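Lecture notes, unit on protein representations.

Consider one protein chain, 179 amino acids long.
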Amino acid sequence: FLHGNYDPGMASSKSAGLAARLSGIRVCICLGSGGVGKTTTSAALALALAARGQKVAVITIDPARRLAGALGLEELSGEGEQAGQHLVDPALFAAQGVEMKGELWAMMLDPKRTFDEIVRSLEPDQSAREEILSNPIYRELSTAVSGSQELSAIAKLYELHNERDFDVIVLDTPPSRNA
């Protein structure tokens, strides 16, 4: 699934290269059933776009946590710089002979953290905000309710697309027929 200035006819053209197909695309979502290479494809697309000079965010909402390995990292947590996003060190790619002209940011979605960010942005009163965040019902709803991962993924995608300065966002989804 691609969002941006996308021409479906171009995708079917055998002469159009991948770079041309992705030109103008702001969001690229890799989805499908398990074992089809979504994570590998997400990492490769993000790396290629960043190497060409774009500022790219690659996000995984797959609880299997394979994105770090696909990027050659030991781990990728939901914590860290700039709201859980981590700038992947260009030296890692240079050691493999890949020149990184842009930036590659990677993150693993943390549904609880995303819901907490929504509460913080919508509730201006600190006391009310802390009351909501410490409420046991809220804590349960923000982590265990069916659909919370999907809702937090949409919220994070919206935030990255509208409030950050990424050229492209690549989303790696969990195995699903209904993504």
